[in-house]
Amino acid sequence: MPSVPHTPQNKHTIYKSINSLLIIGREIDANQHSHHALQISIALDEAFHFACDGISGDFNGVIVAPNVSHSLSAESGRQALLLLDPEHYQAQEIIKRWLNNDGVYEIEAQTVIALRAHIDALLADAHPGSTPISNLLETLVPANIDPSNMDTRIQGVIDYIGQRSQKLASIEELADKACLSESRLAHLFKQQVGIPIRRYLLWQRLLDACFYAAAGASLTEAAHRAGFSDSSHFNRTFKSMFGVHPSTMMKQSGLVELK
Fold first, then answer.
1. Which residue of 5, 30, 167, 169 has the fewest CB atoms within a 10 Å radius of its CB?
2. One domain, residues 69 and 179
3. What are 108-149's pLDDT values in tens digits?
4. Residue 6's closest CA among 138, 158, 124, 118?
């Protein structure tokens, strides 16, 4: 699937990976809301105003736990917003290491500087490789999965899913493709990829819909093309995961798919 080219008039540039969305742009404002994804917000120019659980003030970087109500607003400057599936191993490590049962963590200045450097490098690269979001996360937690050592059966399943126009394959079908039992596939996939296979399929459908919408399709068309039963199903799933209606995020956005 080709990338949507980034042009200066785009309000947001959105990078998608197998389990995350990285949104970079201006006017990333949100009223009080909560969502299922783990959120990492970084001010790239000027501090944003953030409020959560009695905490209110200007911040340059915060980590927000899943399902925690919060608001974020910025009058000027760019922000980077990373939304990560909380079941992914790096998200779980971030929750364990930095949040420690708290709803929000203010990222210290030196780490913010390091995260900004990764984001600036990503924006400067017209052809990003396969791991820029993982590299960003490694500033907070080390990676412990080496893609080069992936089991060929799991890589075959990922390739098979990627070749489908809709990510609706059953676990039985995928297990048969990998010549594994369903339980063995589920265990090995989580071990190798870092996210349960059903969650992986859901993320791929969400991300495909984002791609189609960013490429110019209506949300209804994007939802159907990605395999959702209707636009309402897509809208509910998207808002549950990310906390905003997809039209808010997709309007005037350019999306880059990380290979």
1. 5
2. no
3. 999 999 999 999 988 888 667 667 788 888 889 877 666 567
4. 124
| Number of domains present in the structure of the chain | 2
User: How many angstroms separate the CA atoms of 225 and 125, rounded?
Assistant: 29
Confidence band for 88, pLDDT divided at 50, 70 and 90: confident
Do 170 and 127 lie in one domain? The reply is no
3-class DSSP state of 38: strand
SS3 35: coil
Residue 1 lies in a domain: no
Nearest-angstrom CA–CA distance, 91 and 39: 9
d(CA 70, CA 244) in angstroms, rounded, equals 12
Same domain, 122 and 156: no
To which H or E segment does residue 33 belong?
strand 30-33
Average pLDDT along the chain: 84
In a domain, 6, yes or no: no
What CATH number does the domain containing 82 carry? 2.60.120.10
- Tell me the whole-structure pTM to 2 decimals: 0.80
Residues 6+ positions from 225 with CB-CB distance below 8 Å: 165, 166, 208, 209, 212, 217
pLDDT digits (tens, 9 = 90+) for 201-233: 988 898 888 878 877 888 899 999 999 988 899
Domain that holds residue 94: 12-137
Asked, for residue 190, whether it belongs to a domain, the answer is: yes
